[in-house]
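note to self — DONT lose this again. spent like an hour looking for the file last time. sequence + predicted structure for the chain T wanted, 193 res
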Amino acid sequence: MRRVLPRRAFLGRAVLLAGASLVLTGHTPYRHWDIYRQAHLLIGCHKGDPETYALAQEAVAVLAEHLPKAKARVARAPHPERLASLIGTGQLFVTVLGRDEAFAMASGAGAFAPYGAQPLQRLAKMEAYMLVAHAELPKRHAWLITEALFGSRLMPETEGTATQAATAEGAVSLPWHPGSRAFLDGEPEPPAQ
């Protein structure tokens, strides 16, 4: 007598077989993510604050116009802690955060404690929000991003020099990325590294 497998058991075995074939052939879906990250400038945001998504979309639109080779795209995480994880593991370099979130993530405080302090630096200040980057973002990339955003609604030209902006905000602010600071202080575009 032939034994008939229930549908659930059949699907379970099919998933196991597919997973085993991926492991045995050395292919993982994460390789595609690595390639995508290398080809596109990803601007992080999160679903916990819809305004971060709107600002990330606006930044992508400005970058598409002024810096099309960056191929900027929005990368939306479920919550800001996931962004901390992605930044901390080098999978994401640029993100939009609320000011309080940026300071907490940079210091590893509160909900960000499990991820540790992240070396965040400012690329642009957007009233109650900031566009921040990991300190390892190349200086030239930060310079180009800041140049593209400067004068847009995201970063009005009234920003002044980075030194003036930092002095006006006091010591509690995040430092400017050296590339952004160079642009704001009128220095020429850094060479490619």
